[in-house]
């Protein structure tokens, strides 16, 4: 209907209808809309349709300022009229009104939503969105769910993970093509279209009219905005157009979200071809439309596309025609040569990037379907919309709109076809794009939604030739960067390869196309079509051959390469992604017999491609020297399909193998790679730089090995099993360049290899042979056996975490292959071979992950060194595996010495590969083994234990795999007529072992010792003649042998018979004239392999006749040969094992062994060694010895260092070290002696050369985090839970201080409290001392040492020169004794009154110091500088509390608060009480004593005016009370009862001259205790209610006149109450007060407990102080007796105190003046204050005494709860979701890490918060990474994670996305480090954050 209406509208221009108001007026949109809707609802709606049409024409006309805005700014300005935005908005408003048909738009939306039948979720997301993937529920590997659907479904116990979307995606919930229905969430399980009512026709009627115009309008904009300039349009212009269109596209996007009903309307509109034709053809008289159409044609043309106007030419080739057009295009005849039609136009477009100038290779004329590349015909809005989406490089909004429509099935099909039709165009745009990364992600975002669905993929393959298009497009793409191959024949090579340096490969631009291809090949139906289509296979092999031989390496022989190219990354990635992964995809469909045909096809075309390749590079039989490429994808395709054919499809191997000559060619390049690997590891390629090592490692690395080295080795195994074994073996030694080494002579000349590389190359060759012969990966192992072998190999190298195992085990790269990592078989094999070691903590704080370690029986039976060697990326891993094996044998008592790699039994060979074992039974190999055994026995140079080990391994392999046992008689018969030209009689190793070889003719340099010996022998003619007659001297050349075999094979193969024999290319090897003369010498050998083995046994054991055949004693041995004692051991064991096996296999061997042993072997003659040879041998030996010595030294050093570190860094158990070496042995010595750790001298600290302690000063707010609440604070995880910091210690103290400052004199307020709860300075030391002048020079040297340290020397930071602990200052040690023993040992008998007088006098005497401050000594300078350091440690706001800035009172307050902070923190480290006692914990290298000296020295500079000294108020009754009334206007001083007693204590002590006398200290404590006790009583009286108070008042009054009334709390309490009742303190007890007071019934016990609790904090701090000042030990006690023990320790308890009756705190009181007088004086001050401020007066009296220890926030069990709440939480400043959200674990604040929105004066939010919350220390949990980051001052470090997965592993950055659970132990460790301030010492990796966190 819509179409008809539109057509009618176009029919002819009608005059505008009269009822339409003039355009200029403000239109009543709703009314018009309603009117039109009514008009259209009539049966005859033509008039209505026309009317609407005209309105839309006007509203949506494209001739508006937008075009101007796109073309240029100034035009827009000229256009005026409210700017370009206004008209757009107006148009959108109109559309919304019209759609709603006069109703409200929101109601309309709701109405449409009600008819949403969608059973799919289909939520579309963009990059970085957090989604889930459940492998248990997924059918396609790409399945993903949005968080909401995931959490609403039931996935318990499933294999799922959370992931961050890279390219964007869509939720598959409800789509049964992609996932199993059991996994659907609650919302999408039930909905089915049946119960959704039918959509009323009139609801969406307007939409059908309005939307086509709207979309056309959008397309016109897009056409307008795109100017095809000469160069590529700049990003900016495109983005500008897109910004302008933002509202329109968003409007469309909103429509799609209205649900299924609206989507189907949109689908109609988008796919209706008639509509499109009518509106866009540009044929109408509308000039604007014409112009727009022209622009569209220009855009098409400039994109290198044709608009098929001319139907005749293109009639057949319309890609969307649906019929297969292969035949038409002559495709079947395509012979595989391929190219482009004249592609110069395409070249020109690339020209802008300057690539056209490079010498590119063009391929010959094409038989290929050009239309795929060049024709586009748009027939609907959808098609043109996609075209513009691509043109504009996939703007995110457009992509989301197109994807939001996908739940509509009809649309899905149409869109997929459109996408396929534009595929070539996408590729062209992608190649030119500047932002290819973003664009790639957006393309895959779309394609993965389309191609993951098998049904859809199949349909498109059939109808739109999807496969043809993809393969062609990939070919075209790669064609643009081909260069000539330089492999083999540089001049005449016809082969072309991709150039890995081009951006296309370097930036992985091909990735989206390849990933689509892999995706569709994973569907069986599609892959089958591919494998059946010969033309496609040919083209594909063509494509693969572009990668064959890419990134060629040429060995640098002279100087080091100047520039190391890094192209190899690109090359390996390209082969893996573009060749190997499609291959694995295809292989996964060739699993059963029925698929044999496919394999035959692939193998056939693969061989053809290989033959073409050999011809193209001109390859004959010798590879070019010093060249290697690691990329042979054609070989690997061939190998993998062969393997599959034999393993799964029961194909006969020979039926798919080529002739012998082809096999010889096939083996050359893979063999070359193996030899090059050995060369690279022998350092022969060093001049090529590090990158060549990188290639060698990548080739065997776990993600690549099963697509690279495994197929190569398998192919070599296949070749070896079918070629002549002698030829193969000699080829191997020739490739490894060690042919010349294999001679009996002691000296030889190697023309192709330097002597220093010979040994490692020989080891390489033998190791390769062992791998080749013992590896069974493709030769008969089942998948589970392979998995087990891989796992064992990895675990033997090192213990592994679960995730690293998953990563290291090569999985089949194709996701549908069955063995998915984490699958059932993986877990079951893992539990069979390994034990789990739970994560443990070391005291140093380094955290371990949960590890798996091999079980004992695995070491015993399954350890396979061959597999380990094959899989090691680093050679050190092989050593590591052997070390672990050795340790196991020692531990289990199986073998004490240094074992050799064990020999492991192999799985049986698949019958197809039996021929492989012929290698072990060929004369060539036996000659090599014989020669090497002989050389080892004779100690020739360049042989190693490793060589011997491999030789024995090969012999043992041969014995294990020998042919059927030969009969001994037969052997003896053929004895006499042995053929003379060869060394050995037959080819069976068993019989060859016993064959004696008498003489050997060798070619040696003239200098060799053999030559001299011969010339002597030749004098006696008879001996010479006897030699000649015997004719037994053998000569043998591997090269000649190989040539001979090669010629035989060539001549045998009929095809070659008529060709000329090919030239030998090996003449390149030795340059003539370079080698010295070789002469022939004849050696007398007279040995067989068996006799050599027995002699070796003697040599290895170092004893003559050490071998005694075991079966002579115990005949049983021959019957049951498997003897465990031979399983593990060294070379001796190996030789014994081999001899036993040889004896078992033939009686003859047994007899010969016995014979050899019977002849008493003469000692091996000491060889005559020439001087020169001796020299080199000595040199070697000396080198070896030096090396061993060095190793030993290093090991010793390491262990010494380790043991030192253990003692020095033992953060958690300091019991074992004494803080300073203090000589307290003889009591009369009073000088403390210090060792300087820099110059090593010891001595006392003196004034002119002071010694100092290495200290770390840091600001700390830990104390402020104590809370009075027992309930732990939890991290908020919902909006309701918020944390308010009002109950912390710091907050309470702040409130108190500000209250005092409001009402009292500032200077006295600053003496009444302590600060430092937040930002207090904590001082800690490692206990080492140094001379301060030494320290200064040490700092200088650090400053000049420009090595990057983790600390900043300019800020005074350094590490302790001895223990390397972090420090930033030096605290001077005060001269004199460390422990003032003599001063307090004599207890004085003075009365307390005398002592009080003395204290007062001492305090009043300024500068009563042994060091007078006026004279500037070095010591006093240092003391000042350290004081400065202490001040600068914390921020100014934590130091300045006075109202008058810079007042001396401030400094005074700050200084005694530093002492307070350190004492309080030590108390917290002891667990908040002193019950544990003992000096040990304080010996934690405490520096309080030194700190006190420094503080005291500075405190005495500010002598308090004696008027104000609180000491007076405490110890004297003031007479003239009324004098205070005189100065009313001045603020009064703080009443003494409001003073903080602990602060008073520190002030009093620091005001005294140091060192302090013990009796003065006790006196001060006694006096202060009276005040404290009174405060407790006052607080108690305020806490209880009126009745209690009056009861107590009377009770105490009765006892007032008893003898010790002053020591009874009842009396004192009643006195306090009666005194305070005089004031207003107890009055006006309003209702709100009652709520505060707890309604407890006070018993005498509870009152006593209250009083004790009130006084305990003071007693604890005082005892600590006494312990530090006077060195007394703290007694340990039970918690309940802590009060009494501490008070007696402090001397408060009279010594005669009886312990019988229950302890009463009041008995500690010792009043200096009559108690009642002084109490009434103190109460008077309170009363005079509460006259005016009763409320505040009361609040100040009640103090909370019991504070809980500080803790970090409590975290939830499961990490997901934190993640789901915080990762979407918005920033409070900019209301966006931050990129890196973090949360503070101390206070729960949500912060943006690195967020610029919250930056203040160049400080980012985390750094700011760390200063405000922790005075420079911040502990943050990074939400998106699950890691904890510590900020300490100007440095930060990653601490690790406290959340671990089920395998005990961290998941940093949530890469694996497995569920994480809290690890309580780790969190405890973190909290411990926070409380003990040891972050700096324990964590090692610090870096500066430059305020950017």
Give the gist of this structure.
By secondary structure, the chain is of the alpha+beta class.
In total, the number of strands is: 28
Give the strand order of the largest sheet, numbering strands 1, 2, ... along the chain: 22-21-23-24-25-28
The portion of residues forming beta strands comes to 5-15%
Please tally the helical runs, counting DSSP H or I stretches of 4 or more residues.
77
**How would a textbook summarize the main sheet?**
6 strands, antiparallel
Span of the ends, CA to CA: 61 Å
The average pLDDT is 78
Q: Mind telling me the C-alpha Rg?
A: 46 Å
Low-confidence runs of at least 5 consecutive residues: 1-26, 62-84, 309-360, 814-819, 965-981, 1012-1032, 1054-1075, 1163-1170, 1208-1229, 1378-1386, 1407-1414, 1520-1528, ...
Indicate the structural class. Answer: alpha+beta
Shape: flat
Helix content: 40-55%
């Amino acid at each position: 209907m819509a179409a008809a209406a539109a057509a009618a509208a176009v029919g002819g221009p009608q005059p505008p209808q009269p009822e339409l108001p003039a355009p200029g007026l403000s239109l009543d949109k709703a009314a018009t809309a309603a009117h039109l809707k009514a008009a259209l609802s009539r049966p005859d709606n033509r008039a209505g349709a026309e009317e609407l049409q005209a309105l839309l024409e006007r509203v949506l006309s494209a001739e508006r300022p937008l075009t101007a805005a796109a073309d240029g700014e100034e035009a827009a300005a000229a256009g005026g009229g409210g700017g370009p935005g206004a008209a757009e908005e107006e148009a959108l408003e109109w559309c919304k009104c019209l759609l709603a048909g006069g109703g409200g738009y929101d109601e309309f939306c709701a109405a449409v939503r009600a008819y949403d039948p969608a059973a799919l979720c289909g939520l579309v997301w963009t990059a970085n969105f957090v989604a889930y993937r459940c492998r248990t529920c997924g059918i396609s590997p790409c399945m993903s769910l949005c968080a909401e659907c995931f959490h609403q479904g039931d996935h318990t116990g499933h294999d799922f993970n959370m992931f961050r979307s890279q390219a964007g995606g869509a939720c598959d919930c409800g789509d049964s093509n992609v996932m199993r229905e059991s996994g659907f969430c609650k919302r999408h399980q039930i909905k089915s279209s049946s119960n959704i009512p039918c959509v009323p026709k009139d609801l969406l009627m307007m939409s059908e009219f309005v939307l086509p115009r709207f979309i056309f309008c959008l397309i016109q904009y897009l056409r307008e905005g795109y100017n095809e300039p000469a160069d590529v349009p700049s990003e900016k212009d495109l983005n500008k157009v897109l910004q302008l269109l933002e509202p329109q596209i968003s409007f469309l996007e909103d429509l799609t979200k209205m649900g299924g009903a609206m989507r189907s309307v949109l689908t109609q509109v988008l796919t209706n071809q008639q509509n499109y034709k009518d509106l866009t053809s540009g044929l109408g008289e509308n000039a604007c439309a014409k112009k727009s159409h022209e622009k569209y044609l220009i855009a098409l043309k400039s994109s290198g596309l044709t608009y098929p106007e001319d139907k005749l030419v293109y009639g057949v080739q319309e890609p969307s025609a649906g019929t297969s057009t292969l035949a038409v295009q002559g495709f079947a005849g395509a012979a595989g040569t391929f190219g482009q039609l004249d592609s110069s136009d395409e070249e020109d477009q690339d020209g802008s990037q300057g690539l056209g100038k490079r010498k590119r290779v063009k391929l010959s004329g094409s038989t290929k379907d050009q239309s795929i590349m060049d024709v586009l015909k748009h027939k609907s809005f959808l098609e043109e919309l996609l075209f513009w989406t691509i043109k504009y490089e996939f703007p995110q909004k457009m992509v989301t709109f197109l994807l939001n429509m996908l739940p509509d099935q009809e649309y899905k099909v149409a869109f997929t076809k459109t996408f396929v039709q534009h595929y070539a165009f996408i590729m062209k745009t992608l190649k030119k794009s500047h932002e290819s990364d973003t664009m790639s992600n957006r393309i895959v975002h779309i394609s993965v939604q389309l191609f993951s669905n098998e049904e859809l993929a199949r349909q498109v393959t059939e109808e739109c030739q999807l496969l043809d298009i993809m393969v062609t497009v990939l070919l075209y793409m790669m064609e643009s960067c081909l260069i000539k191959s330089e492999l083999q024949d540089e001049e005449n090579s016809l082969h072309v390869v991709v150039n890995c340096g081009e951006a296309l490969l370097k930036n992985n631009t091909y990735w989206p196309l390849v990933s689509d291809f892999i995706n569709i090949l994973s569907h069986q139906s599609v892959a089958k079509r591919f494998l059946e289509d010969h033309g496609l296979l040919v083209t594909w092999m063509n494509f693969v051959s572009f990668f064959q031989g890419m990134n060629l390496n040429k060995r640098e022989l002279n100087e080091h390469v100047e520039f190391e190219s890094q192209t190899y990354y690109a090359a390996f990635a390209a082969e893996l992604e573009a060749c190997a992964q499609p291959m694995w995809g295809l292989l996964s469909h060739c699993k059963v017999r029925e698929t044999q045909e496919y394999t035959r096809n692939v193998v056939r075309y693969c061989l053809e491609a290989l033959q073409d390749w050999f011809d193209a590079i001109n390859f004959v039989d010798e590879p070019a020297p010093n060249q290697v490429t690691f990329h042979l994808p054609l070989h690997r395709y061939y190998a993998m399909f062969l393997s599959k054919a034999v393993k799964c499809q029961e194909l006969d191997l020979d039926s798919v193998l080529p002739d012998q000559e082809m096999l010889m060619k096939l083996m050359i390049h893979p063999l070359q790679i193996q030899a090059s690997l050995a060369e690279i590891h022998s350092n022969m390629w060093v001049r090529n730089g590090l990158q060549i090592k990188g290639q060698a490692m990548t080739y065997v690395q776990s993600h690549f090995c099963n697509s690279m080295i495994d197929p190569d080795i398998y192919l070599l195994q296949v070749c070896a099993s079918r070629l002549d074994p002698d030829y193969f073996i000699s080829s191997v030694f020739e490739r490894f360049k060690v042919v010349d080494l294999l001679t009996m002579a002691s000296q030889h000349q190697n023309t192709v290899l330097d002597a220093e590389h010979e040994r490692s190359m020989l080891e390489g060759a033998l190791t390769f042979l062992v791998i080749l012969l013992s590896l069974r990966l493709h030769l008969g192992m089942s998948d589970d056996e392979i998995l087990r072998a891989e796992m064992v190999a990895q675990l033997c190298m090192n213990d592994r975490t679960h995730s690293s195992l998953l990563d290291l085990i090569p999985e089949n790269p194709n996701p549908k292959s069955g063995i998915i990592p984490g699958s059932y078989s993986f877990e079951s094999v893992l539990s069979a071979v390994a034990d789990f070691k739970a994560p443990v903590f070391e005291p140093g704080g380094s955290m371990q992950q949960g590890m798996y370690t091999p079980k004992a029986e695995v070491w015993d039976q399954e350890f396979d060194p061959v597999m380990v060697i094959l899989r090691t990326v680093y050679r050190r891993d092989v050593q590591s595996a052997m070390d672990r094996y050795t340790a196991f044998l020692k531990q289990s008592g199986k073998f004490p010495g240094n074992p050799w790699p064990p020999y492991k039994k192999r799985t049986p060979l698949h019958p197809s590969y039996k021929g492989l074992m012929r290698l072990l039974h060929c004369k060539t190999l036996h000659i090599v083994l014989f020669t090497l055994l002989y050389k080892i026995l004779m100690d020739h140079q360049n042989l190693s234990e490793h060589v011997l080990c491999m030789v024995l391994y090969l012999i043992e392999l041969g014995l294990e795999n020998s042919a059927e046992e030969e009969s001994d008689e037969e052997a003896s018969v053929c004895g006499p007529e042995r053929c003379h030209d060869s060394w050995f009689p037959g080819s069976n190793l068993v019989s060859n072992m016993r064959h004696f070889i008498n003489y050997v003719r060798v070619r040696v340099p003239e200098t060799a010792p053999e030559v001299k010996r011969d010339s002597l022998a030749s004098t006696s003619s008879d001996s010479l003649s006897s030699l000649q007659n015997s004719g037994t001297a053998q000569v043998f050349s591997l090269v000649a042998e190989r040539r001979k075999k090669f010629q035989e094979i060539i001549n045998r193969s009929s095809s070659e018979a008529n060709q000329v024999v090919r030239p030998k290319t090996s003449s390149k090897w030795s340059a003539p004239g370079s080698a010295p003369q070789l002469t022939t010498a004849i050696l007398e050998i007279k040995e067989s392999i068996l006799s050599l083995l027995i002699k070796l046994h003697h040599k290895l054991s170092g004893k003559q006749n050490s071998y005694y055949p075991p079966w002579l004693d115990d005949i049983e041995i021959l019957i049951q040969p498997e003897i465990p004692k031979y399983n593990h051991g060294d070379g001796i064991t190996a030789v014994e094992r081999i001899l036993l096996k040889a004896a078992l296999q033939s009686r003859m061997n047994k007899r010969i062994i016995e014979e050899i042993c019977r002849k008493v072997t003469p000692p091996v003659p000491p060889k005559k060694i020439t001087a020169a040879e001796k020299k080199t041998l000595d040199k070697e030996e000396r080198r070896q010895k030096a090396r061993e010595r060095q190793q030993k030294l290093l090991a010793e050093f390491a262990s010494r260092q380790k043991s030192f570190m253990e003692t020095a860094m033992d953060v958690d158990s300091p019991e074992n070290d004494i803080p300073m070496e203090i000589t307290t042995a003889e009591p009369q010595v009073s000088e403390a002696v210090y060792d300087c750790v820099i110059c090593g001298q010891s001595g006392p600290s003196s004034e002119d050369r002071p010694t100092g302690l290495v200290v770390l000063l840091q600001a700390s707010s830990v104390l402020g985090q104590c809370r009075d609440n027992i309930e732990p604070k939890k991290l908020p995880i919902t909006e309701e839970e918020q944390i308010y910091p009002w109950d912390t210690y710091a907050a309470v103290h702040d409130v108190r201080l500000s209250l005092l400052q409001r009402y009292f004199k500032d200077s006295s307020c600053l003496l009444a409290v302590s600060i430092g709860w937040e930002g207090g300075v904590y001082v800690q030391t490692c206990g080492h001392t140094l001379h301060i002048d030494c320290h200064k020079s040490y700092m200088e040297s650090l400053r000049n040492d420009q090595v990057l340290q983790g600390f900043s020397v300019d800020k005074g930071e350094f590490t302790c020169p001895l223990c390397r602990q972090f420090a930033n200052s030096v605290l001077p040690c005060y001269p004199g004794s460390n422990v003032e023993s003599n001063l307090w040992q004599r207890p004085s008998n003075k009365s307390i009154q005398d002592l009080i007088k003395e204290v007062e006098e001492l305090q009043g005497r300024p500068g009563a110091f042994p060091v007078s401050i006026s004279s500037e000594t070095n010591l006093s300078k240092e003391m000042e500088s350290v004081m400065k350091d202490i001040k600068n440690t914390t921020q100014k706001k934590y130091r300045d509390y006075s109202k008058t800035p810079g007042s001396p009172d401030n400094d005074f307050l700050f200084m005694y608060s530093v002492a307070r902070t350190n004492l309080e923190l030590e108390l917290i480290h002891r667990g908040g009480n002193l019950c544990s006692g003992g000096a040990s914990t304080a010996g934690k290298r405490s520096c309080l004593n030194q700190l006190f000296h420094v503080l005291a020295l500075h405190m005495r500079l500010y002598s308090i005016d004696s008027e104000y000294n609180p000491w007076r108020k405490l110890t004297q009754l003031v007479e003239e009370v009324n004098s205070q009334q005189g100065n009313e206007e001045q603020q009064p001083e703080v009443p003494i009862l409001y003073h903080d007693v602990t602060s008073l204590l520190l002030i009093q002590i620091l005001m005294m001259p140091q060192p302090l006398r013990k009796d003065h200290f006790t006196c001060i404590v006694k006096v202060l205790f009276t005040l404290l006790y009174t405060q407790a009583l006052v607080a108690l009286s305020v806490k209880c209610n009126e009745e209690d108070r009056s009861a107590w008042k009377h009770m105490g009054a009765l006892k007032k006149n008893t003898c010790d009334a002053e020591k009874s709390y009842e009396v004192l309490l009643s006195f306090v109450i009666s005194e305070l009742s005089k004031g207003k303190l107890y009055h006006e007890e309003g209702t709100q007060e009652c709520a505060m007071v707890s309604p407890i019934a006070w018993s005498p016990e509870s009152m006593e407990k209250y009083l004790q609790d009130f006084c305990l904090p003071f007693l604890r701090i005082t005892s600590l102080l006494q312990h530090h000042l006077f060195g007394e030990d703290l007694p340990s006690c039970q918690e309940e007796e802590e009060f009494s023990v501490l008070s007696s320790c402090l001397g408060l308890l009279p010594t005669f105190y009886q312990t019988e009756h229950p302890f009463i705190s009041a008995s500690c009181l010792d009043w200096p003046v009559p108690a009642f007088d002084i109490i009434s004086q103190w109460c008077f001050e309170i009363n005079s204050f509460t006259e005016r401020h009763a409320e505040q007066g009361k609040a100040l009296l009640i103090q909370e005494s019991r504070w809980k220890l500080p803790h970090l926030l409590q975290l939830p069990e499961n990490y997901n709860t934190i993640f789901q709440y915080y990762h979407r939480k918005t920033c409070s400043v900019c209301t966006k979701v931050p990129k890196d959200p973090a949360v503070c674990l101390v206070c729960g604040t949500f912060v943006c890490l690195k967020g610029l929105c919250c930056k203040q004066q160049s400080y980012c939010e985390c750094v700011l918060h760390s200063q405000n919350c922790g005075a420079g220390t911040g502990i943050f949990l990074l939400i998106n990474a699950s890691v904890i980051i510590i900020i300490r001052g100007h440095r930060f470090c990653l601490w690790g994670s406290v959340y671990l997965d089920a395998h005990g592993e961290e998941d940093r950055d949530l890469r694996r996305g497995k569920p994480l659970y809290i690890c309580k132990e780790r969190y405890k460790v973190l909290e411990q480090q926070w409380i003990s301030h040891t972050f700096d010492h324990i964590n090692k990796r610090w870096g500066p954050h430059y305020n950017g966190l």
